[in-house]
Specification:
mainly alpha; Arc Repressor Mutant, subunit A; 3 domains
C-alpha cells in the first residue's frame, strides 16, 4: 500500500503536511539509515512539497538523525566486513545514494587499507573455490574472476589472487 504523507494539501494547514512528512521520515528511519538524498527522494515520491521536505530534512539534520558522514562510514564498514565488497562497488553504491565524493573518500580511507582488498580477495577466492570444485580449472578461473570483480575488487587485485592460486587460463591465452 503506497502511503501518502502529504495528503492534506490544505493551504490553511501547512503544519499538517509538515507533521505528516516528519512522521513518514521517522517511520522510514525506524527500519534503516538513510542519506539526505535518499530521504529527500522518499518524501518527494510520497507527494510532499519541496518546502515541507526541506523543513523535515533540516529538522532531522539538526537532531542528527540524518548524517551523510556517519552513513558513509557505516555503509563502508558493513560493506567491507559483512558483505565482502571492495572499493569500486562501495563507491558506486554510495554515489547512487547521493553521498558526496569527499565523504566517500574519507569513509574508504578509514576502512580500506592498501592490503585490505588483497586479503579480502584471497579469503573470498578460497571460499568460492570450494563451490567451483569439479569444474575445469580454466572455467573455475573465469568464474572466480567474475565473482571477485562483481564484489568491487580492483582488477589488479583479482589478477594477483588468480595468479597466486595458479589456475590455468582457457586455451593457454594470457588475456582474460
Amino acid at each position: 500500500m503506497a502511503w501518502r504523507c502529504c495528503l492534506s494539501r490544505s493551504p490553511s494547514k501547512p503544519e499538517v503536511d509538515l507533521a505528516a512528512a516528519r512522521a513518514a521520515a521517522l517511520k522510514l528511519l525506524e527500519r534503516r539509515r538513510y542519506s539526505v538524498a535518499e530521504m529527500r527522494r522518499k518524501l518527494t515520491q510520497r507527494g510532499c512539497e519541496s518546502a515541507v521536505v526541506q523543513a523535515v530534512l533540516d529538522g532531522l539534520l539538526r537532531a542528527r538523525l540524518l548524517d551523510d558522514t556517519a552513513y558513509a562510514q557505516a555503509y563502508v564498514h558493513d560493506g567491507v566486513l559483512l558483505k565482502g565488497h571492495g572499493r569500486h562497488r562501495l563507491t558506486a553504491d554510495l554515489r547512487r545514494r547521493g553521498i558526496a565524493p569527499e565523504l566517500i573518500d574519507a569513509a574508504l580511507a578509514t576502512w580500506i587499507a592498501d592490503d585490505t582488498e588483497l586479503a579480502l580477495a584471497r579469503d573470498l577466492a578460497v571460499q568460492r573455490l570450494s563451490r567451483l570444485r569439479g569444474l575445469e580449472p580454466a572455467v573455475a578461473r573465469r568464474r572466480l574472476a567474475g565473482y571477485l570483480q562483481r564484489r568491487g575488487l580492483p582488477v589488479g587485485v583479482v589478477v594477483q589472487v588468480l595468479s597466486e592460486l595458479d589456475l590455468p587460463r582457457e586455451g593457454g591465452n594470457e588475456a582474460e
